[in-house]
């Protein structure tokens, strides 16, 4: 008998379309000889829809979920990646793929993630936390990066290299989140490391990937086809080990499960943590599947490992 896997995509945030692409790719690539993929979609308005995109509401979705053996949430960003869907599965007693409530919530919060990394001795960009109440007191003294604390896909991220750009950048970020990070610009190569907790509990880090972009790796660069992903990244053994060790340490300290993508800047002084993604892009051409492909894993094999490693 095939294993029924509920694949949830969409979501009530700016990553809705990206999540739909990830979920569709996952559902299509699960081996049909082993799995029966059951798509569920969360609309921008929060309405749950079945595989025919008919509105069924949360109660209808609960019936579908109860008929499945495993849930595979692929909702990026708030109300998904932040532990919300993991909480739903936990409350319903459903096995699910990926990180649990606590790691999802902490990793989605870039400020909290910085605190965890700093406690581990892993460098992060110097920065300050800003809210609507404190934004007016901030003064520009040098180039900074402004980003919402808990938004994804580089939404609301801006490089501020002139004083007159600080106010508009803060306004744009605060429109997406009630807390904003204002960080120093880090001079370094953008390197990602994917860490997977396998079904047997062991951790595996895939070959690192370098992002080569013209300027800031923002939402347009990420999804507009302008970025150049190079995997394996051209780094020496010392840098590769430092990146992998830091990625494993952060993954383990947060308590992640499934696969997570840990993003760094590689500087002359070593890795500087940028952020952690517990529900990274999962189309076949996304960064994480590319990294595992470089390790010899096919896309269906990666998905199979994730399903077999679901929380029980």
Automatic annotation (TrEMBL):
Q: Which reaction does it catalyse?
A: 2 D-alanine + ATP = D-alanyl-D-alanine + ADP + phosphate + H(+)
Leader sequence range is: none
Q: Name one GO molecular function term.
A: ligase activity
Q: Which residues form the ATP-grasp domain?
A: 114-308
Q: What is its EC number?
A: 6.3.2.4
**Cofactor names:** Mn(2+); Mg(2+)
Q: Which InterPro entries match?
A: ATP-grasp, ATP_grasp_subdomain_1, D-Ala_lig_Van_CS, D_ala_D_ala, Dala_Dala_lig_C, Dala_Dala_lig_N, PreATP-grasp_dom_sf
Top EC class for this record: ligase
Q: Recite the UniProt keywords alphabetically.
A: ATP-binding, Cell shape, Cell wall biogenesis/degradation, Cytoplasm, Ligase, Magnesium, Manganese, Metal-binding, Nucleotide-binding, Peptidoglycan synthesis
Please name the pathway: Cell wall biogenesis; peptidoglycan biosynthesis
Q: What subcellular locations does the record give? A: Cytoplasm
Instruction: Report the domain of life of the source organism.
Output: Bacteria
* PANTHER family for this protein: D-ALANINE--D-ALANINE LIGASE, D-ALANINE--D-ALANINE LIGASE A
Family the UniProt entry places it in:
Belongs to the D-alanine--D-alanine ligase family.
What is the recorded function of this protein according to its Swiss-Prot or TrEMBL entry? Cell wall formation.
Protein's UniProt name = D-alanine--D-alanine ligase
State the organism of origin. Nocardioides aquiterrae
List the gene name: ddlA
